[in-house]
């Protein structure tokens, strides 16, 4: 028997990314694969909310929402009661806690998280910096970087650089290869920025083998051989020890987790 598709509504007066992140994290806790997330962005009127809630009621969905204006949150609450639809307010309780604790008043302006302000342009600049200095293409960037990632091939240097850039940090990454001498003077002079990435040899072999398949290269190439992987990892670890930098084992770690460790340390 075919599994029924379950639909969750995500509603926001902006793009809905915050509520969607919460919903996606929730879905991962369940075994079902038949879940569809329907997003409703830029919800700015009571009519918008009424129409969405009536649709949710018709198909038996529940609604997760982030709404800044209190009148829209109240409308959502009333419609949820009227139509017997479960609705979860992600933003409201946190805003109220802020008001109660710090005696402050919210701006009540939608879309502030994604506005094109100074922080936005800093993030754009950081992303451009990460692309320009990826994989050691511009060693002079090591001086300007907030964070410098070191590691052998396929230890998540590039995706981690881009993720941190989205947070506004300028990140350079440099690949470590036993046959290529790294710019030790530059690295030593920027020691406080250095982060060494490592991984279990078995995991790295698997990742490199999949990479070879993706680019159409033959299985068994030296690049994915266990002996070569072990040699590279040992070389990298010796380099980290020489430089005295922090080292993170990224085996089975999500990019977000590794980024959190780096930012906490720095």
UniProtKB/TrEMBL annotation:
Keywords: Kinase, Nucleotide-binding, Pyruvate, Serine/threonine-protein kinase, Transferase
Binding residue positions for ADP: 151-158
Keyword ATP-binding (UniProt): no
Similarity comment text for this entry: Belongs to the pyruvate, phosphate/water dikinase regulatory protein family. PDRP subfamily.
Entries under PANTHER family matching the protein: PYRUVATE, PHOSPHATE DIKINASE REGULATORY PROTEIN 1, CHLOROPLASTIC
NCBIfam families (UniProt xref): PRK05339.1 (NF003742)
Protein name: Putative pyruvate, phosphate dikinase regulatory protein
Source organism: Paenibacillus plantarum
Lineage: Bacteria, Bacillati, Bacillota, Bacilli, Bacillales
Gene encoding the protein: ppsR
